[in-house]
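Throughout this chapter, every protein is written as a compact record of paired, labelled lines. The reader may check this reading against the record printed directly beneath this paragraph:
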Amino acid sequence: MSEVKNKKVLVLLSGGVDSAVAAALLAKKGYSVTGVFMIFSSASQSLAEKENKCCSLEAQESARRVASCLKIPFYTMNLAREFREKVIRYFLQEYKNGRTPNPCVACNREIKFGVMLTRALALGFDYVGSGHYVKSEKRKVKSVKQGAGSARRKAQSVKLFQAKDQKKDQSYFLYTLTQEKLKHLLFPLGDCLKSEAREMAKEFNLPVADRKESQDLCFVGKEKTADFLKKHLAVKIGKIVEIASGKVVGEHQGLPFYTIGQRKNIGIGGIGPFYVTAFDFAENILWVSQDKNDPALFGKKLKVKNPSWIAGSAPKFPLQCRVKIRSMYKPALAVARTQNSILLVDFQKPQKAITPGQAAVFYRGREMLGGGTIC
């Protein structure tokens, strides 16, 4: 405890169970903990627009109650402008360009462990803590010699691993973290199951022990994603064509509203279900299939742009690894090679619904190596 006694941690309190338990665990270890609630809605928005999952007044008050229960200082930080510019603008632009974005990756990179981390360090905090389910470990690397005649300095690197709870693991969303950032981040839930976190919340008498969690996009509030997009994007209605027969089977509301592999809410009446297989932006056609195993839905190859590596440098190629192409998918065996600034990935088995815009994240065993954007 002596190592952490004077270390100050700013914990990102969302009003939910995970961040609350993270704060409690860090306080129990002896850190000087302060809680902060991030506000992502501007005061000019209507109440309906502001009542989103991530920064509703109810969530803010929940976070405040947690801080009060733990007897730690509590503050709010308005990041509405940064969130709008870095996350929502990216989200809309990607859909406009026919790609399916991953706003959680952008939020972690630009906001939580971008702007928020920078401000925390500027305010004198040593660390930022969060309730993400991911495991970080400091590992010694080869000692570094500063110059002629100087002594060697022990160096450390931080590695990221999948969480103990495989269903809740969030390493997929954190592939853009750098060594410099990781030195200032604490993830106390890496060795916890979700069920264990809830039990700990009860043991700590936290007022959020039974609070439900949402899987929805936090910033769209009670709206459906398609309705949110309709308000912000100009789109054209077009034909839905069945890939096997070439017949028109319906009318789509705008290609940006769909994603590869989508089955629900396509808008085709009668027999079904149908699955989205491809987009034709030139002709404004949405291609679909009734066969969930249609070869058009599968692929063994993909390309990845803008790769980012946790170690700070790329691994040796060709890279034998496992690659995860969606947050709820299991990592699949693959080989990655380089071609200029692009990574070429060859899977051992065909993967369903490879989707441009989504993240492809690389693993070696349980270690998360890094990732990039499917292009």
Observations:
- The CA atoms of residues 39 and 78 lie 5 Å apart.
